[in-house]
Amino acid sequence: MNQSGSPAPVEGLYIQHQSWLRDWLRRKTGCPFDAADLTHDTYLKVLVREDDARTLREPRAYLTTIAHGLMVNLFRRRDIERAYLDSLALVQDAFAPSPERRALALEALIEIDRLLDGLPAKVRKAFLLAQLEGLRHGEIAERMQVSVSSVRQYLARAMQHCLAVW
Amino acid sequence: MSRRAAAQAELPQSVIREASIWFVRLGAEEATEEDGAACRRWVEADPLHRLAWDRVEMLGRQFGQVEPQAGLAVLDRVPSRGRRQALKALSLAVGLGGAAAAGLPWRAWTSDFGTVVGERRDATLSDGSVLTLNTDSAADVRFDADLRLIVQRRGELHIASHGDPHVPPRPLVVATPMGRVIALGTRFVVRLDDGEAWVAVTEGAVRIEPAAGGAGAARVVEAGAGTYFDERAVQAARPAPHADAWVRGALFADAMRLDAFAEELGRYRKGRLACDPSVAGLRISGSFPLGDTDRILAAVERALPVQARRYTRYWVVFGPRG
């Protein structure tokens, strides 16, 4: 009844829009299970920020913004997981990391990926070589065919970016 | 999760910039201990500096959870992809993930067997012999009808050789750039250093044939002894009682100088592990478990009047206490 204008408590948001949101998510994801999970997660997020929910002017836009963010995160996470498993497939079984190490590595990869998002390719590359391989600045310069001072600019920029989006 | 809690505080742009400059300065080849001390003063001058530096270090620890090759494969795939494009990219990645990963330069894994810094692994070969690779090592295994050949690419390996089930039995040979090491029924270690290789035997014996030395240069090394060799010659053997301690996950030191100990321990850690000249001559003894090198640093601090100063995750220096 109040698509815009009047207050919309979470219960109302849920009753009025949850099946619409789930349909919207099903169309976006093409998967009813993902749609159900993401609908649930979206309302969880809304609950945590209940103050906002009471003053909503466009509840569906609000819901889809949250849902879209969650969906992107879910797909990004799966994308990283798949790439990580692909990279392990090239390792001899005898040398593959343990399940515990894999889980820790995957969480770290997802977090690092989030922090690095949006960095230019060279900046990202230099930072990865420094942080993952522990390469010296001169070695990175050689590997990337750029000057040492460029490498240092890249590294500073990457770290600034990470600290800024933390 | 602790990271989420710490994430509440916003850092001012100026602090972010300064922390990033320190990060680069301390990572530089020419960084001195004064730089390290100056950075510490900066960190301690303001709680926001401390928070920024904690995040720099936290990020370093996150990277430490990931094997370098896997990390590069995953994080360096499609650079600078915005989150908004993630969905579009996903539809491509579903089909291309494997191919994209397979096209990468796998330095450590192009060898049949490889380890990264700090790692140790063993593998049972087709003849029953057990190959163990120490930290940051790689070897190819090439067995055919005539020869059990192991081509050592880098680092250090140990072989517990097994009688060959093949008839007739094939020789077991480790090929290095400096020459060949031939097992004479045995357990032994081969380690590649700059321009020379170290061989130590714990059981049986090996025959060393330097690559350019001719037949006269070959020598046999017996159990309990070790020696260096290069392309031309084999040095005189010397006692080497604990050369295979690493196979059991231990770093063994018998009144070892601290600078030599730091160099040895440094092989198991990424980055630099240095020793201040004022404490370089101190002696350390013991058997240290290699599983957690930070604990070894702490053990050294307890055993000797020294302090392990951590400037960054990749730069630790043993110096006088205080």
Describe this entry's structure for a reader:
- The complex is a heterodimer of chains A (166) and B (322).
- Chain A has 166 residues and is mainly α.
- Chain A has helices at residues 10-29, 32-48, 50-54, 59-89, 99-116, 121-133, 137-144, 148-165.
- In chain A, helix 6 (121-133) packs across helix 7.
- The radius of gyration of chain A is 22 Å and the shape is elongated.
- The two termini of chain A are 40 Å apart.
- Chain B is elongated.
- Chain B is built from eight helices and 17 strands.
- In chain B, helix 2 (13-27) packs across helix 4 (47-64) and helix 3 (33-45) crosses helix 4.
- In chain B, the strands form three sheets. In chain B, strands 1, 2, 3, 4, 5, 6, 7, 8, 9, 10, 11 and 12 form a twelve-stranded mixed sheet that branches. A three-stranded mixed sheet of chain B has the order 14-17-16, sandwiched between helices.
- Chain B is α+β, with helices and mostly antiparallel strands and 322 residues long.
- The two termini of chain B are 34 Å apart.
- The chains are: A mainly alpha (166), B alpha+beta (322).
- The interface between A and B is large, with 58 and 65 residues.
- Please give the share of residues in helix of chain B: 25-40%
Roughly how many Å apart are the termini of chain A?
A: 40 Å
Mean pLDDT of chain B: 83
The ordered string of helix (H) and strand (E) elements of chain A is HHHHHHHH
Note poorly predicted spans of chain A.
1-8
Please state roughly what percent of the residues of chain B sit in beta strands, choosing from under 5%, 5-15%, 15-25%, 25-35%, 35-45% or over 45%: 25-35%
Helix count of chain A equals 8
Radius of gyration of chain A: 22 Å
Helix content estimate of chain A: over 70%
Structural class of chain A: mainly alpha
What share of the residues of chain A does DSSP label as strand, in percent?
A: under 5%
Report on the biggest sheet of chain A: none
**What is the string of helix and strand elements of chain B?**
HHHHHHEEEEEEEEEEEEEHEEHEE
Counting copies of identical and different chains, the oligomeric state is heterodimer
The outline of chain A comes out as elongated
The coarse overall form of chain B would be elongated
Q: What is the terminal separation of chain B in angstroms?
A: 34 Å
Question: What Rg of chain B is obtained from the alpha carbons, in whole angstroms?
Answer: 24 Å
Question: Which chain pair shows the most residues in contact?
Answer: A-B, 58 and 65 residues
> What composes the largest sheet of chain B?
12 strands, mixed
